[in-house]
Amino acid sequence: MMKPSKCPNTVKRIIEKEEKRQDAARKKAAREKANNSETYKQHLRDHDRITNDDSEEDEKTAEEKQMGMTQHSFPMVQVAGHDGPSVVYRPGTIKDMKEMMNDHLPDIQQDGEKFATALLLLCQQFSPTMPEIRKLLTLKIGPTHASHFTQQMAGLHHMTKVEWEDPANDGYRHAITTLCTAIKAKFPAKVDMSKITACKQNPEESVNDYYHRLHLVFNANSGIQEPDGYSAGAVGVWETHLSNAFLNGLSSAISTSVRASCIGVMDGARLEEIRRHAIHAEKRLSEDKASDDKKRRDRKEKAQLTMNISTASLRGDGRTKHEHERRVSFRGDNLTVGKVKVSLT
């Protein structure tokens, strides 16, 4: 006897259940695949990042080795020791470099002499190693200009004793001196005489103020180094040119007075002597002006008094206002009272 077949509804439910199970299985498989794919991508990203970091580090190390800039720890700071001052080791950092560079080194292209002098003082004060100096100059003047001094900045010279003049520092001191000499030769001071010529004494500016302003402009643009103790020796090039610029820049009245009073002003007179004559001329001209102003005020007061007396006299004898105006009048700096003319200048 045959079993009865399942009803159509039951078969339909079984088919739907199977389809849902298969659909859930497909979604689960898709999620697992997506998770595996994201994990794989993250793995690739991490791998690329690590590889890039390693590459950058390798490039940085290679560049430093190529430029000879590998940092070393050398004596840099002096401290108190049992036998007097001694030095301790410390590596210079980029921050240290930038602070020293900004605070102590001027523009090398403007005046190599000033830059070399500042660099020497910096080395005496901070004792940077030669590798640090290479990095310092590259940061300050750029790799192109720094490449001019590759030979002078070679080696690993460094301070070994606290005192700059100690024989143990001969190698370091000689290397720094050689570098400074090369900088002076490569970057001579720029000359701009137009700025010196344009530096004139202002109307309300004193002689001393003008001299100090001109002194700065002259040293910055003349290309002539100011000698130490210039007033003790013979008249040199720097003093001669500054004296000439000083005379030409003074006000016309003071300059004329100095040329008339200072003997030998055009034949090598000392700068300080010319300056003293200029200060004296300024004082005398100021006193003369004050005296002239006082005389002018006195004359005006006298004229005013005369006018007041005349006005009172005219009113007393009954003259009309029109007659008074005809007899008392001002024309420029002259006062006329009747037939009497008084100058107010």
Structural overview:
- The protein has helices at residues 8-67, 94-104, 112-126, 130-146, 170-186, 193-197, 207-221, 237-249, 252-261, 271-316, 321-327; strands at residues 74-81, 84-90, 328-331, 334-337, 340-343.
- It is mainly α.
- A hairpin with a 2-residue loop joins β4 (334-337) and β5 (340-343).
Chart the SSEs and their pairings.
Elements lengths: L7 H60 L6 E8 L2 E7 L3 H11 L7 H15 L3 H17 L23 H17 L6 H5 L9 H15 L15 H13 L2 H10 L9 H46 L4 H7 E4 L2 E4 L2 E4 L2
**Structural domains: how many:** 3
* Unreliable stretches covering 5 or more consecutive residues: 1-6, 62-75
Topology as a string of helices (H) and strands (E)? HEEHHHHHHHHHHEEE
Hey, roughly how much beta strand do the residues contain? 5-15%
Task: Write a brief structural summary.
The protein is mainly alpha-helical and 345 residues long. The chain has three domains: 1-67; 74-186, no CATH class; 193-286, Non-ribosomal Peptide Synthetase Peptidyl Carrier Protein, Chain A (Orthogonal Bundle).
